[in-house]
Write a structure and sequence with these properties.
Layout (H helix, E strand, L loop, with lengths): L1 E4 L4 E4 L7 E6 L10 H19 L3 E6 L6 H10 L3 H18 L15 H13 L3 E4 L2 E4 L15 H6 L15 E6 L14 E3 L1 H12 L4 E7 L3 H16 L4 E7 L2 E3 L2 E2 L10 H8 L1 H9 L7 E3 L1 H24 L10 H19 L4 H19 L6 H17 L13 H15 L3 H13 L2 E6 L2 E6 L3
Parallel strand pairs: 3-4, 3-9, 9-10, 11-13
Antiparallel strand pairs: 1-2, 5-6, 6-7, 7-8, 11-12, 14-15
């Protein structure tokens, strides 16, 4: 399996440190608000990576943090007249609502900054003891001049980085490129006791401390959005490698950014979308499909047309599953034939070929739709056996599960009233009372459902929004 490594700028073979186990650390959200679709892209990409690695036989240790103390959280708390803890805990609760809606599985470990203060203080003390950090009136800064490789992830020379750096008002650092690993307490802000005084950690140090504690000195894959390459991941590397003497990660994996109508998503331009808002309009699953529909490193452009096309594509997948479920009971008995076995094998091989080549979910989805075409052809053939259908169904389920798709079952949610109307309509059609049948169909449609007659019987499904 090849993955593009941001550090080396080339595809590299995944070689886990521990044989058979892949350890991943993915940077999670700063929890002060609902997640936006840019956040959701990273969540869905790395959730699918985890699923695919398991599909390929690996065990996966997946760690994703929550930054639950930060300037943004404190600002939001002051605006609402709440504590920072109340704001962050509510945001984490809402995060899990959206993550569940997107079918993103919970990480094996979701460490919070506020629950890991001891290990954060410990790594800061290590940096001070080794001379890589210095104290300045209650703050502690990392000295970038002590790390000659600073800039190696973003591939920017130190002099270029220095040219754009500055010392903000109130900062006491020695050089513009130095960054805070500990901030002295300010009135009205949450703080913790430490050997360097009361305060709270800087943003970057938390991931260095928690990845080391929960995974080890070196991670197999460190992931996040490309916006984190600099300064967040660059600073993580400097802190961690100075503290441990080991590489922080063997592979750095970054997903591309998301545009809206070909423009950078930003609150200032009014094209900033929360996942919750889009899910209310389109449902969560089309969002997930959209986020996986292009290669993870490519820029993704959200438009109404794009998500509508994703809804239509999903409907094709659901229709395939529904058709399998209808045809199977009435199919002729018999074992799977060579055609079904060959189609399933081909689909799996094409899927693996795509996903093993730098996790190409776009081509992986294309392989699934090739399988759908083969399934539809087979299901239309009366000679197709139960064994054939079982082979097709198992492969279809396996591949869509890797992508985290088809997790909604409309049939389980169809109201009894709709089912009763559909049964009445079927009787009306049988009695050739087509006027009544049309009237009943219109009632079902008004309730948000579609009823269709097929060779295998009556089908009811929720109408697309």
């Amino acid at each position: 399996m090849l993955i593009y490594n941001t550090m080396t700028r080339k595809k590299e073979e995944l070689k886990p440190i521990t044989d058979g186990t892949v350890k991943i650390y993915a940077c999670g959200p700063t929890v002060y608000n609902l997640i936006h679709i840019g956040n959701a892209r990273a969540l869905c990409v790395f959730d699918t990576l985890r699923r695919y690695l398991e599909f390929r036989g690996y065990k996966v240790l997946y760690v994703q943090n929550f930054t639950d103390v930060d300037d943004k959280i404190i600002k939001k708390a002051n605006e609402l007249g709440k504590t920072a803890s109340e704001v962050s805990e509510n945001a984490i609760k809402e995060y899990f609502t959206d993550a569940k809606g997107l079918n993103v599985r919970e990480a094996d470990i979701h460490p919070k900054v506020t629950e890991n203060m001891d290990i954060i203080i410990d790594i800061i003390q290590t940096l001070l003891d080794k001379g890589y950090a210095y104290e300045a009136e209650g703050d502690v800064y990392f000295d970038t001049s002590k790390f000659p490789d600073y800039g190696k992830l973003s591939h920017m020379p130190l002099e270029d980085l220095q040219a754009g750096a500055r010392i903000e008002v109130g900062e006491k650092k020695r050089a513009p490129m130095d960054f805070a690993v500990w901030k002295a307490a300010k009135p009205g802000e949450p703080y913790w006791d430490s050997p360097f005084g009361k305060g709270r950690p800087g943003w970057h140090i938390e991931c260095s401390a928690m990845s080391r504690h929960y995974i080890g000195d070196t991670i197999d894959i460190h992931g996040g959005g490309s916006d984190l390459i600099f300064p967040h991941h660059e600073n993580e590397i400097a802190q961690s490698e100075c503290a441990t003497g080991s590489p922080l990660a063997n592979i750095w994996m970054h997903n591309g950014m998301l545009n809206v109508d070909n423009k950078k998503m930003a609150k200032s331009t009014g094209n900033f979308f929360m996942v919750r808002d889009l899910s209310d309009k389109y449902g969560y699953e089309p969002i997930r499909f959209m986020l996986l529909s292009v290669h993870y490193r490519s820029q993704l452009n959200y438009t109404v047309e794009v998500i509508e096309s994703c809804k239509a594509a999903l409907r094709r997948l659901y229709t395939c599953r529904e058709t399998i479920e209808r045809v199977l009971p009435a199919a002729k008995e018999g074992a799977a034939g060579e055609k079904a076995l060959a189609d399933a094998k081909k689909a799996r091989e094409e899927f693996i070929r795509a996903m093993d080549d730098d996790f190409n979910t776009a081509d992986g989805i294309a392989a699934v739709f090739e399988l759908v075409r083969a399934i539809n052809t087979a299901l239309a053939d009366p000679e197709t056996t139960k064994g054939d259908i079982k082979i097709y169904s198992d492969e279809f389920s396996a591949l869509t599960n890797v992508l985290g798709l088809l997790y909604n079952n409309d049939e389980d949610n169809i109201p009894d009233e709709v089912t009763a109307l559909a049964e009445q309509r079927a009787e009306a059609r049988k009695a050739k009372n087509f006027a009544l049948a049309d009237e009943l169909r219109d009632k079902i449609t008004a309730m948000g459902y579609i009823v269709e007659e097929t060779r295998q019987g009556t089908v009811i499904r929720k109408a697309d929004n």
